[in-house]
Amino acid sequence: MADAKNTKKCQATVFDMDKQFLCRRATLDGHPWCKRHNEERIKLYVGYKARQKKLEQFDERRICSNTATIRACKSLEQLRAWYDGLKDKLVLYNRCIDARAMHTERFYGNDMDWGHQTFWDRLTEERDDIKELIAYVEFRANELILKDALAWVEERRTLMTKREEVHGGCSDDGSSDNSDAEARPR
């Protein structure tokens, strides 16, 4: 039987309401965690690996990552499709990063190796790139929407100009009415 003084204590972080502390139950042989937390660690690990796999399997054809192509796009339908794809990919990045964060915080604290930290940093940078692409798509879509919305204004302005040329600046009843001419934008 192991000596009680030499028994290692579980190193899993326990979160209880607004407090956090180490579990301190006896560990399994060869593990830094108790049985319950070792099982939880494995489930969280499998979970973040599954999320990572979904991210890796994302169909890149659903999005456009070229900002020049986005800026040149004239199809609101295409922009919507890219937007939907980018939002789906952003959700995958968030889930992947959040799952890794939960696993790491719970079982390793701030003690990450260089490779793990580098991978995490890369995921965060790629997620930021997706957010930037979403902003480009939203901006271009707004440009197209405004262009369509303002087209009727230009059409109306052209019609009014032609009408004034035909009537010589007179209203339909033949009187000269320029009272609102200065108020109208040209």
From TrEMBL:
Instruction: From the UniProt entry, list the residue stretches annotated as the region Disordered.
Output: 164-186
| Entry superkingdom | Eukaryota
Q: Residue spans with biased composition (Low complexity)?
A: 168-178
UniProt name for this protein: Uncharacterized protein
Give the classification, highest ranks: Eukaryota, Fungi, Dikarya, Basidiomycota, Agaricomycotina
